[in-house]
Fold these 3 entries.
Entry 1:
Amino acid sequence: MGSEDTQDDAESSDSSSERDRSSLAVPIWLDRTAAWAMRLIVIAIALGGLLWLTLQLRAVLIPFLVALLVASALRPVAAALERHSVPRSLAAAIPLLVLGAIGAAAGWFVYRSTASTLESDEVTEAAVRERVEDWLMGSPFNLTMSQIDEGERSLRSWLSSGIGSFGPEQAALVVQVVGGALLAAVLSFFLLKDGAQIWTAITSRVNPARADSVHRSGQAISGTLAAYVRSIALTGIADGVLIGIGLWLLDVPLVLPLVILTAFAGLFPLVGAVVAGAAASLVALVAVGPSTAFWVVILTLAVQQFEGNVMQPLIVARQVSIHPVVVLLALTAGGAIAGLAGAFLAVPVVASLIAAVKAFSAEMEVGGDPPEEGVDAPSG
């Protein structure tokens, strides 16, 4: 009898212990949510660290990415020259020199045309001042001469303070930009000359089971960057044509130089269109009058909106095979993180990563899971 009581007591004790443990057990949904939250936190920390490292190394990364864009776009030309028995170094240098010569010639043409127009009798300081004063004193502004003089003094003070604020920080920025441009030019030459050999050396140190996939990913990146350069070139040309037609209809001088300036400014998303539009508005102001300059501003804003919301997402997305929403988000995020350079490089970087992942994944689906092998030791 005593043994049965003892057994019952033990069973009741075990039951109560199980009930206690079950009451303390974490629900399955909460356990899974916590696991996913921990993974997301780790990923966010890793991405934050990568972003911090990228910002610290942007003085090197930005010229390298620009050089990669240039080399990817000019690689077909260099390859064609090599096929015609041109030495590799010369085949790499010729496209870069031609591109630099075209840019320099276009810049000189724009400068000389603008200077000759501004030196004419119709755009003297007195003539421009008279047109601006008549415009401001008329409807809808109806300003008095004293108000115009006060506004002119404030504008001159603001301009002088802006020019006079050039200090060590601005000088360092100029040096950094010039140095980055020179570094990008040198890197472009070496990537055109030895890019294939460098990539072969990199892939030779990859696990042989993954080497082909990595090689295909590299080809996808190169093709995507070249397509992106073509897309922004098409966008810049379209901007120039639209602006040129509008300026011609408004009878603004220097149409061809402004078209060239707009086309080149299209290489720099967002800011380029603003700079080109400001230049066109200034020419219209000094050569024709404030009313025409106002309509040029409206024209520039319309073309800029059409470019940013229609042309660039559709053209860029079609060339690099990414959704227009991704293009807009990449432009916005890149500009917020790294300014003009970030806006210029964000879309090709995102598009290249997407293309590389697709190429790598497609190769793995075709080839299946490779056997487990160790990574070969670097040779040499």
Note: Residues 113 and 237 are 20 Å apart (CA to CA).
Entry 2:
Amino acid sequence: MGYVIAIAGKGGTGKTTIAALLVRIMKEKQLGSLLAIDADPNSNLGELLGVETKQTIGSILDEIAAHPEKVPPDVSKDRFLEYQVMTALSEEDGFDLLTMGRPEGPGCYCYVNNVLRGIMGKLVSDYKYVIIDNEAGLEHFSRRTTRSADALVIISDASIVGLKSAQRMFDLVGELKIPVKKSFLVINRCLGQFEEEKIKNLGLTFLGDIPQDKKIEQMSLNGNNIMQLDTDALSLASLRKIGDKIWQN
């Protein structure tokens, strides 16, 4: 079974950027086969990784739910859906990317969603590491779309509001009894050294902070991606120092 790293956080914290940075670092370290899953309906992990997403799981489900007759009569729906999922997989240098998207059509998705869960389980087991960029906020936990993780990394800013939101996410994971082996808090876009005293009474495991990085801002303005980011960028250097704690068993 692949080692699953789930990235979560409220909107605007740079959650997807951290996920993309982790993909780059793990690729560079050649840790083994790596699958990145964009589970955020906004679906911009591919853009940050420099990958053109041709198809999403949501669009596949739309097509099958709206036109079930397109499934060949001599092929089971399970096998057909599995084939379609594999064609949506973007195979890149050092990692693969799967973009979930969100079904939007009026058809019934109950059956295909059940089949998809089984396919995703098999797919995850084919990789040594899996990074999941989850939907912003708490909905993916309340819907139990994050079913288990070896490492849960919640991204926050240094504000009290952000930290309390992160605490609610940790609490909800416990309330829903989602199997998570270890959980971490990462403070992103930090101005100066983060004062750990702020989280002393929150019961959060602080992993480290990522400083405000002008090279990330410039990258975004220029329309570049994480793979083009200078190797000495502050965000990369900071995440390299703490990353081992995330992906080590």
Note: The chain has nine helices and eight strands.
Entry 3:
Amino acid sequence: MNYFQVYKKLQLYPTFNLDILAGILGKDKDYTKVYLNRLLKRGLVFRLQRNVYTIQEDPLIVASRIIWPSYISLWSALRYHNLTEQLPSEINVMTTQMKSRKYIEYMETKIVFNHIKPIYFFGFNKIHVKGFEVFMGEAEKALLDAILLKRISLAEIYSMIIENTKDLSLEKLLSYALRMKNKGLAKRIGWILDSIGYREADRLLPLIYKTVIPLDYSKPVKGRKDEKWGVIVNI
């Protein structure tokens, strides 16, 4: 089997490892390692990390296939769901696995790995990008992930929810927040939902604790105190 034939078969995979390549070649691992090194030297294959390779050039295709399990969230997911016009400068991946490397650079794009607890690992679907399955966070879960990890200012999240109320499921925002059981998250998303008149937000009140926290973690702690939700309204 020549390089062209192997390359055509590898085009079917978003990422691959030594076992997959060995299966394509019908050879043992020692032979496959030598063959793989030749592909790497010729620039036909890219190494993403130990035993994870690809020939795909779109970072979005490979991002959720580098580590298992994982899904794409934050700005990339929000852009995919048209909640923002901002073009992300990086792809954020949520995973329950611990990684020594916090990010990798691929095709001039930073792919960032965010470790989350198993209780937070849900709320994503398979989508198709150029014929490949990609694990993408739902719009509502991407918003909650952003609050949980404090990666997007609450003022921006608040604006996105207000501007896209018709396209978002407020019930899903609420039920996902209840499922996550994070008290700081419950305070912040509870205040947002309450402020736009979604009275079911009161179902989050049992998660509230006495300590007052800033509503927006990215801004100075200045503003009025909301007694109900225990936040300083600084947006």
Note: Residues 153-235 form one domain.
